[in-house]
Amino acid sequence: MLKKNLPNLLTISRALAIPAIILSFYVENKYANLITISIFIFACITDFFDGYLARTWKVQSKFGRLFDPIADKLIVVSTIIMLVYKHKINDFTVIPSVIIICREILVSGLREFLMATNASLPVSKVGKIKTFLQMVAVIALIVNNYEIAQRIGTTCLWIAAIITVWSGYNYVLTGIKQTS
Q1: What whole-number distance in Å separates Cα of residue 27 and Cα of residue 137?
Q2: Are the CB atoms for 79 and 20 separated by under 8 Å?
Q3: What was the pLDDT predicted at 119?
Q4: What letter would DSSP give residue 13?
Q5: DSSP code of 29?
Q6: Long-range contact set of residues 1-9: C-beta below 8 Å, sequence gap at least 24
Q7: Tens digit of pLDDT for each residue in 52-68?
Q8: Which of 21, 25, 53, 147 is the most buried (most CB within 10 A)?
Q9: What is the number of H-type helices and E-type strands within the chain?
Q10: What is the pLDDT along the chain (180 residues), one digit of tens a residue?
Q11: Dihedral (C-alpha) 147, 149, 155, 160: value to the nearest 10 degrees?
């Protein structure tokens, strides 16, 4: 029973980590960044293991196929918003943040629309690379105490935004083809 449900429980735990991440941005001590990074990395690890275990154990579910990418988007977008709020993302770096957030909303809406038409929009390899880069960017931007972390975070965020536009375009084309 646990084997069958563990991947979905990991996905749900990622979504449940969001309030903890948001609250961690309000911690005012020398461990604040470490707390936030720890929670975020836990969420990233669950992202890897939920899919890996579901495929390995052959317990993939409709819930997992739908909710896994939503949980990814929620964790990344909510953390990006908090990074902007805390001025760890500012100036021109807000641009890739807005691009990423808009694309994530677009693709989520597209998936929901396609489900209503009994079509699907599976996660692509490019989408997985995009998510990985977003997660690396977010971790580096949370650290933000060192110039190298800020540069890595900003660079990864811009690259992720470019890939975000490309993969979003591909998803829209796929969606159009499936509904035409």
Answers
A1: 21
A2: no
A3: 77
A4: H
A5: S
A6: 3/57, 3/59, 4/57, 4/59, 6/50, 6/53, 7/49, 7/50, 7/51, 7/53, 7/54, 7/57, 7/59, 7/60, 7/61, 7/64, 8/50, 8/61, 8/63, 8/64, 8/67
A7: 999 999 999 988 888 88
A8: 21
A9: 6, 0
A10: 788 899 999 999 999 999 999 999 999 999 999 999 999 999 999 988 998 999 999 999 988 888 888 898 999 999 999 999 999 998 999 999 999 999 999 988 888 888 788 877 777 888 889 989 999 999 999 997 789 999 999 999 999 999 999 999 988 898 888 887
A11: -160
Tokens of 70: 């939503």
3-state secondary structure of 75: helix
Q: Which amino acid is at 6?
A: L
Tokens of 45: 């690890």
